Amino acid sequence: MTHQPFSDGDRLWNLSENGTFPPDVYEHPEWYSYGDAADQCAAIIRAVRGKPQALVPIYRAVPAGITTINTGDWILIAEAPARVHAMQSENPAHDWPVITAVVWADLVRSGGNDIIEWGYFGPTITATVVDRTSD
Fold first, then answer.
1. pLDDT tens across 26-74, in order?
2. What CATH class is the domain 23-134?
3. How far apart are CA 103 and CA 106, in angstroms?
4. What is the pTM of this model?
5. Rounded Cα gap, residues 114 and 21, in angstroms
6. Residue pLDDT, tens place only, 68-84
């Protein structure tokens, strides 16, 4: 797969690190996001600013049977957009599961697109499936 998150993108706890985002990302995160989860993601980036060891839940839509999140995988820091990524057809029965794990903010790097999509850059971790009834 050629479309991968940046291994040198800004880390979640320091969005001014490598210039992936302009310095005003903390004051105006809405300029760097879209969708219903923008406010939730903005709150997360503000809460972990300057805290590399802050614990952050991450989410990933995966085919059934996958239970790991690997270094370089695309992830999301809010469940709602992961649910959108999981949609496979008009029939919810065909949707992929969403898995989740909790990681340090230091292991989450910007995908370079917005404040909703990120890359995971830590060791392979076992995740748990998010119960669909939590929507």
1. 999 888 987 788 999 999 999 999 999 999 999 999 999 999 999 999 9
2. alpha beta
3. 8
4. 0.90
5. 9
6. 999 999 999 999 999 98
